[in-house]
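Standup notes
- DV: blocked on the single-chain target, sequence here:
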Amino acid sequence: MHQPVRVHPGEVMCPLDELEDPGSKAFRVVFEDGHELDIFAVRKGTEVFAYVNVCPHQYLPLNWHTDIFLTLDKTQILCVMHAARFEIDTGDMVYGPITANCSLRPVPVDIEDGAVRLAAEGVPRF
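- DV (later): unblocked, structure below
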């Protein structure tokens, strides 16, 4: 398994056409102070949604392989630890053990000139 792509806040994460539609890709945000955060991006049509790579139930990574975060039919985000499923466009849980605040933590991204860019500010820190 390869390592996630490293990116700093404000940088281009990847060209939009590098993400399948639908498809997902892992990234590691590196902050100025050296702190790191694993995130992932999911393309759905002309939009890209990004989330912190942490299941809200057990605080473990959602994926079993670097860039695989979706169900087999690629309609939802899947936690491989206990099969919880989340909506791609909201991060809200639609199946699994329901607990308070049971949604994925969003990460702000934009699409500019055919590239997915991580926001310069507002990236969550754990």
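- Follow-up: The longest strand covers residues 36-44.
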